[in-house]
Amino acid sequence: MEVYTVTVATGTSEYSGTNNYIYLTLVGENGESERTQLDNPGLDFCRGAVDQYKVTSPSPLGSVLLVRLEKQRYWVEDNWFCQYVTVEPPDGGKVLTFPCYRWFVGDVKMEIREGTAKTLTGDSALQLLEHRRTELQERQKTYRWVTWAPGIPRCVDAETEADLPQDVVHTHSMIQHICNKFDFKTTNKLTIWFGKSWDDLEDFKRIFWKLKSPIAEYCMKHWKEDWFFGYQCLNGSNPRMIQRCKKLPENLPVTADMVQRSMAGRTNLNKELKAGNIYLLDYAIMDGIPSNTIKGHPQYIAAPICLLYQHPDEGLIPIAIQLEQTPGRDTPIFLPSDPPLAWLLAKMWVRHSEFQVFQILSHLLRTHLVVEVFCVATLRQLPAVHPIYKLLAPHLRYTLEINCRGRTQLISANGIFKRVVSTGGDGLLILAQREYKVLTYRSIQPLYDFCDRGVSQLPNYFYKDHSLMLWEAIHSFVSSMVNLYYQSDHDVQEDLELQAWIRDITEEGFTELPNFGLPSKLSSREELCTLLAVAIFTSTAQHAATNNGQFDWCAWVPNTPCTMRQPPPTDKDAVTMDMIMATLPDVSQSCVQMAITWHLGRAQPDAIPLGRYTEDHFTEAKALEVIDRFRMELKEIEKHILTENEGLELQYLFLLPSRIENSITI
Q: What is the pLDDT of residues 514-554, one digit of tens each?
């Protein structure tokens, strides 16, 4: 008899253990071992346990190709999460690791492969080729494409998170906790304050006594200042909106005389345009978006154009604001020289548009929904042994669940956005559809994005600087990993699974996008590396840049209001404090805005930071060396950012690698 030593590791999260029967069979190139019930004295398969067993075979198995695990019910159904299995052959040779990282739900049988990453051409054994084919067939039945709404990326076919397999669901979902709290606390306790305006701006401090952050408090003190408005255009929650203005838009009739008082000495608007110091925020995408009606009360939307100037002494400052796209008598151009309340209200309207754009477009569409396309295609087209699956899996963790919950509980017809946000309801979908029509593959690559917007020379653009450092680190990481498994461009072209993956992305995920710019075939290692870098950068750094600071910038409600209850002003001289208070979110809406941005933007208690891999999908030494180099590079970036921020009163730390999650989980 041949005796193999087998080690089985149970997951460490809650509910990972089981008291059900577990059976194991080793499948080798020369036959199978005995089907063995894994049962030691005492309790087996407890949470975090690493249990060892002996498995016998009547004859040598040769190379062990697969481990077959079976779970059978004992008294009550009890799911089990298996991390990995190791197998030591009878001759004491090399111990083989079989990564699993799967849930066993019900009476189920599962076969897992040894951990060496292999493309389709790297497998020759018919049994392993059949295993790849069967795995993908099962996955394609489980993970199906569906159109949740026309005109946006397609997503996984699951009406709610309950329809998802346990493998992609977190045992404790933060967003469920949020929505449960809102169902009771917000609905029941805040309804009495609906429609009740605050008395004055200082009154907003009444909800600012417990939930705080250093930036939120700084914001409360400086939000009226023009330089701070400009700073947020660079380093706030929507730092990819600003663009260089080479020529004034035809629908913004600003003259040099209008803004001369904002210029530095011995210069004027025309000179600064030529010098590249004039920038633009244009919210044309908001024009004509239907606004929400909350409890019978209409909310209001504007489509501002804001002109900014990179002042040599004051930094980036706004110098002119028009609140609608069509100029006219009722669409004045607001200036810093106008009555202070009029200028303040104009900036509030820009920041209100900023809330809509960053939440729905920069955050939801350009990170969550874009990454979901990669999630579904990866699960459908790449088996677990494929190196690209192993590379992407940690960066796609739990994204399907959070997106399902978002669709059902945040942006649905009766979700939180419908209750408090001015674009809630039909507006947010129309807004997303408009952005999706113009979405390009080029625009989600940071090098091109900064270049195309003409912002490469802007000083104190920390988001840009840190993004580029992270992009280079991620691109270098994926390039090293790709080069381990693809020796040439021909290898990429001949990988049928990889080519099916890119077709799923372009033809099933990003549908109705003829100008997206991503081909349906991968022709080179360089193309593959760029695409993988885009997927990982978007699911980590880009998501962190838009998500993690939302409480900091939105907690002080007047700085970034979620809705406006009165239409934009048409007369500068008619703006009063009463008008401002009647326009800003009411007490109820303010409380919800503060609470939801705190819950969604705060550091999650079980967050896994960028570069930390809690599941060891790769087992080869060379691949592990690549991961170690990536971690070291991230540590150097961390040191650089911390050093750069030393002594700064207003620090930009959202892209610290230690504060970036490894995947989109919230």
A: 899 999 999 999 999 999 999 999 999 999 999 999 999 99
Asked if residue 287 has pLDDT above 50, the reply is yes
Residue 440 inside a domain? The answer is yes
* Token pair of 40 as six digits: 């030691």
Say if CB 615 and CB 101 are below 8 A apart.
Answer: yes
Q: Do residue 493 and residue 385 come from a single domain? A: yes
Q: Answer yes or no: is 363 a known binding residue.
A: yes
Residue 85 lies in a domain: yes
340: tokens are 């202070």
Last residue of a domain, one of 68, 100, 115: 115
Check the annotation: does 368 bind a ligand.
Answer: yes
Clarify whether residues 95 and 217 are in a common domain.
Answer: no
Decide: helix, strand or coil at residue 54: strand
- pLDDT of res. 31: 96
Task: List, in sequence order, every residue forming a beta bridge with 298; answer none if it has no partner.
Answer: 293
39 is in an annotated binding site: yes
Q: The CATH number of the domain where 390 resides is what?
A: 1.20.245.10
236 marked among binding-site residues: no
Asked if 231 and 559 touch (Cβ cutoff 8 Å), the reply is: no
Instruction: Please tell me whether residues 407 and 492 are part of one structural domain.
Output: yes
In the Cβ-directed half-sphere of 71, how many Cα atoms lie within 13 Å? 23
Are residues 188 and 104 part of one domain?
A: no
Give me the mean pLDDT over the 43-69 stretch: 96
Is pLDDT of 448 > 50? yes
Q: If you count DSSP H runs as helices and E runs as strands, how many of each does the chain have, helices first?
A: 23, 18
Query: Is residue 278 a known part of a binding site?
Result: no
Residue 389 lies in a domain: yes
Residue 170 is assigned to a ligand binding site = no
Backbone angles phi, psi at 294, to 5 degrees: -115, 115
| Close Cβ partners of 145 (under 8 Å, ≥ 6 residues apart) | 154, 155, 156, 157, 376, 508, 509
Q: How far apart are the first and last CA of the chain?
A: 52
**Nearest CA to 630 among 606, 662, 603, 601?**
662
Read off φ and ψ for residue 400, nearest 5 degrees: -60, -40
Domain at 8, CATH number: 2.60.60.20
For the chain, the maximum distance between any two Cα atoms, rounded to a whole number of angstroms, is 95
Domain count, the chain: 2
Instruction: Copy the structure tokens of residue 294.
Output: 């909350």
The answer to the question of whether 466 is labelled as a binding residue is no
Contact 89, 33 (CB under 8 A): no
Q: Whole-model pTM?
A: 0.96
CA 350 to chain centre: 24
**Which of 24, 132, 30, 135 minimizes the C-alpha distance to 87?**
24
Of 92, 115, 138, the last residue of a domain is 115
Q: According to the annotation, is 454 in a ligand binding site?
A: no
* Interatomic CA distance for residues 18 and 80, integer angstroms: 5
Check residue 460 and give left, alpha or beta (phi > 0: left; psi -120 to 50: alpha): left
440 and 565 both lie in a single domain? yes
Residue 57 belongs to domain spanning:
2-115
Residue 296 lies in a domain: no
| Digit-coded pLDDT (tens) for 192-205 | 566 789 999 999 99
Torsion of CA 343, 344, 345, 347, to 10 degrees: 90
Token pair in block for residue 301: 């939307």
* CA atoms within 13 Å, Cβ hemisphere of 351: 29
Handedness of CA 130, 133, 136, 142 (dihedral sign): negative
